[in-house]
Amino acid sequence: MKKIFLTLILSFAILSCETPNEEANSDLPTVIDETELVAIADAMYEAMNSDDVESVLNFYADEAAWSFPNGVNIEGKEAIGQMLETTTSIWDITREEGTNYIALKGSDTNENGEVEEFKVLLSWGGQTFSNDDTSITVPYHNVLVFFGDDNKIGWNAGFYDRTKFVEAYDEDPIK
């Protein structure tokens, strides 16, 4: 995961610079059309808001991980399902109009020396978490990393200020 995160940071640095036409031979991720990955994310959010954890988990690889801004990392599809059972019963999630997306495609060598293709969907914008008692809107940045031809999510990371969430819980479910 650290190699992927480093690759993402480096790709943003390179994308922000004018580069010569050597991209075809680059090991760095390239920008791709985000439409397919946004559709997957939309379907996942729809399943979350329907409290359909089983359908949400169909989007994840067995060895998937989910990272939170408070340093909590949940590893494995089963553990992600347990977390979702709690959080989907608390919140409905709405992405604000004007959410921005960029998608990248690249490859990396795993610990077994095998080359793995991956796609990354980066999104940023306002996101509202609401229930009968509370509505919290926060600036939200999300990273979804997809692996393989079946586009299973291997890593999900959200970056946002959790202060309002902690105030809304009797006990923080993400700890």
Describe, in plain words, how this protein is organized in 3D.
The protein is about 30% helix and about 35% strand. It has a single domain, classed as Nuclear Transport Factor 2, Chain: A (Roll), CATH 3.10.450.50. It is globular. By secondary structure, the chain is α+β, with helices and mostly antiparallel strands.
Chain-wise SSE layout:
Elements: H1 2-15, E1 30-32, H2 35-49, H3 53-57, E2 60-67, E3 73-75, H4 77-90, E4 92-95, E5 100-109, E6 115-130, E7 135-147, E8 152-159, H5 163-168
Parallel strand pairs: 2-8
Antiparallel strand pairs: 1-5, 2-3, 4-6, 5-6, 6-7, 7-8
Give a quick set of tags describing it:
single chain, 175 residues, alpha+beta, Nuclear Transport Factor 2, Chain: A, 8-stranded mixed beta sheet, 5 helices, 37% strand
